[in-house]
Structure formats: C-alpha cells, structure tokens
Amino acid sequence: MTTNTSQAATVQRSDVLNLDALLSAEELELRATVRRFVDERIRPNIAAWYEDAVFPTEIVAEMGALGLLGMHLDGYGCPGRSAVEYGIAAMELEAGDSGLRTFVSVQGSLAMSAIHKWGSEEQKNQYLPGMAKGEIIGCFGLTEPTAGSDPSSMATFARRDGDGWVLTGAKRWIGLASIAQIAVIWAMTDDGVRGFLVPTDTPGFTATPIQGKLSMRASIQCDLSFEDVRLPADAMLPGAKGLRGPFSCLNEARYGIIWGAMGAARDSYEAALAYSLERLQFDKPLAAYQITQQKLVNMLLEIQKGTLLAIHTGRMKDAGTLEPVQISVGKLNNCREAIQICRDARAVLGGNGITLDYSPLRHANNLESVRTYEGTDEVHTLILGSHITGIPAFR
Question: pTM higher than 0.85 for the full model?
C-alpha cells in the first residue's frame, strides 16, 4: 500500500497548474475541514449506504453544525459564506458521494434559497434558522411526471378557495421529500406559476420514495401527489411570480454542480492513480505503461481545466457578474467531462473497478443523475446555442 507521504506527494503532483494558489488561506482551511468530515464520516460508510440504498439522516445535524446548509445565504441563522467557499464544500462532499452533496444542494440551494429569495419575513424567520441547523429538512417540487425539461407545461394547479388555496397534482424526482418537514411546491395558478410552502404533514400530501434506482442510491428521490391539499393564504411565497422564481433557485443548484462534478472526477482519478502505482502486471506497475499514463494525463487535464472553470465561475458569482448562460457552460462541461473521467478511471481498475471497494463506477453511476437533473446536456446546449446564435431552438 502507498504511504500517507506518497499519497500526499501524488496529490501535490496532480495540481500541475498550482490551482491552490488561487485560493485564500480561509478557503483552503474550509476545504481541509470539509475534506476531514468526508474522510471521517462518509468514506468509511458510503459503500454500505450505497449498496443498501440508505440516506444517512444521522449526519444532517453534523452538516448543519459545520455550516454546510444554506452556507451561501446571509442572515436568519445562515452561515453567509462566499460562493467560492460553497463551491469548495460541494466539491469535497461530492468527492465522497454525489448523493450527499445533493442533500446539501436540495436543502440549501433549492429549498432554503427559495424561501430566502422569495419568502416573507415571517416565512424566513419561521424556517431558515432551523433549516440551517439541520433541524428542519426541506424539499423543492418542480419536476413532474410529464414536465421535466419544460416546467412551463406543469399540470400541478393551485386554485383559490376563499382566503386560501387548494393544491392538486403530482411531482416526480423530488429529493428528500419523504423525510422533509416543509416542501417548496411550484404550481400553476390563474395568475401564472407561484410557489407555496407546504408542510409535509398536511392532509392530501403524499411522498413515495422511488425504488430500484441504479444511481444516487445513498440519496432519496420521491414521487409526490397532492389530493386537494388545503393551504392558508400565507402559504404562498409572495416574492415569486412566474418561472423566474424556480429558475433562480435552479441556477444556485447548477452552480454547485460545476464544483461537485469535479469532486467526483478528482476522487475517481486519485483512485485510479493509486491503483495503477500499486497493481503489478507483467512485472511492473500499471502506471509504468504508456497507455495507462495517457489515461491518467487525460483525466488530470480535464480536472484541472474543470476546476479552473469552477473557480472562475465562483469569483464571478461573488462579484455579482455571473450570468445564467455562464452557469450553463460550467454545468454542461464539467458534468460531461466528469462522467468520462470516472468511466476511464474504472477501466484502469479493470475487473476490480466494478466492485464497491473502489469509487469510480459508483461516481459514474451517480453522475448519470447529476448530468440529467438541473438541466440535461441537451437543455444547456440549447441555452448556449440560443446565446451564440440569437435563435431559440427549444421547440
């Protein structure tokens, strides 16, 4: 086995562009803290969680205590960290597993961001402090069985009933819904798309975990149904009207994926590198062969470029200059490259790579989901195509 010293040396050699020099001392300290949490709490358990399809609710409060929930939000008990710091945390969490980073994304970038951006003061004070601590879990309901990439065609409807609302319809692929206490649900109304805060114990609200997943197994995604769910007038998020509301939250989640995907890629590369240095074939290590070195170099190049893209995107976000089309660049590129890196890393591992003893195939399977949610490759391609040609081609 390689020693800790040799492992550190190979990691240092892998930052060939010295990207760490682009990070501040505080950012590097945060990275070390989250990396230590992943090493101690996620890595020793993730194979069993993945195999048994278990989401470890016991670490939710620990994540809250580390300031990982809603970490980019200010006030209301939220950590108020920078976009780059949030991205660094997402990268380290996804190096452990995409499902665990997805929890942080659904909780903070989607549910908490919706309340923070569009909620009333009463709603913010009621939910955000508990959500930041991990005492309250939230979910975000936008996608429907027949409305994924085209949310404008959503069928879930909220109709006026006296001073309140009655919600009917269904959602699908809703993360955390079966363990959440509060759901942010987007529905069509006579006045366009609006957001509603729905306590999950409201009569008529049903969350059913989706079974038989080959991806994101250490995570929870659900089908939701709303059968005449009655809501008070103050259940509506007053600041959100139209698709701008949910899309603003999706862009927060897409931003985190730019970083997270590179975490999964980096972990897979490091697994392949370590294995190739130890595994002997024809009396010398795999790493001594030209084809293996080519694979490792190609992985490293894309990880360095993707990480540089993430850092640049984060700096723009912190400066307030980041545009949605630029988020699409990062989400499309880094997911596409990360999944190929994980597949190539699995190939270096040979037959051993199909077991849960090694991370690359688990990461590759998870990235099939990451590549699909918050906008598929095709959707982000069309966003970029529309930007560069001036011609929308969605329909």
Answer: yes
